[in-house]
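Figure 2 data, in text form.
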Amino acid sequence: MEKEKSLLDIKVLNEQTKQWEKSFTKRKDMFGADASEPARKAVEIFKNNGVKNILELGGGQGRDTLFFARSGFEVTVLDYCESGVLAISEKAEKNGLVDLVHPMCHDVRQRFPFADETFDDCYSHMLYCMALSTSELEFLSAQVRRMLKPGGLNVYTVRHKGDAHFRQGIHRGEDMYETGGYIVHFFDEEKVKHLATGYEIIAIDKFEEGGLPRKLFRVTLRKKVKVELNDEHI
């Protein structure tokens, strides 16, 4: 583990912000305009859970955000790229959804500016498998848990180690590899379980997406109502 940590190049990881800003600026709908399949599945889960307000992390250019709003949810959506946040704001205004969509620029490696137990549920599509170290993911997971109401769900997707790009390209430390300028942190079930402190694991489902295809986990966690923790990440 110490050897893996020593391979982390924080400067390289931080430069991913510029990579995504450049991509979002050049391509208006980088991932398409339609909602992702995980978002469609999440809506089913959220409706069954009696959800009203959602926290979406890594909203990109808003394809899932708008789908959530059209489905009747109030969405606070965060992304660390200003161009992405601007795109979401413009699309929400164009579609008459400004009352339901609340975009904000925020780096998930920093403490979130929300009070404890603010949100019913949290959703993120491939945010957890960005250029985030394990310690940063631990912090993120704890922050999400802090902001969720008791019994709230954290639904996220990540590329797993069965993906064709795992161990391809440039190794950036831990289980992170860079291909085509993008760094991906690949998961296994052990890592999912490691990050589930304070949660009940409802499901770890495998699915595929895109032309490669990318191979992913859809992780569904429920915040435990009572947790005795000495969690320094909170």
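Caption note: Residues 1-6 have pLDDT under 50 and may be disordered.
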